[in-house]
Amino acid sequence: MTTRTLRRDVAIEGAGIHSGAPCRATLRPCAAGHGIAFTRGRAVVAATWRHADAEASDRRTVIVGDGGERFEQIEHLMAALYAAGISDALVEQAGPEVPFLGGGALEFLNAIREAGTEDTGAPRPVLAIGAAETVEDGNALMVATAHDGLRLSCFVEFPGTIVGNMGFSMEVDEESFLREAAPARTFALASDLEKLRAAGLIRGGNLQNAVVFDHERYYNESLAFPDEVVRHKIVDLLGDLALIPAVLRGHFWAWRAGHRGHVKFAQRLAATWQEQG
Question: Does the reported pTM lie above 0.85?
Answer without folding.
Answer: yes
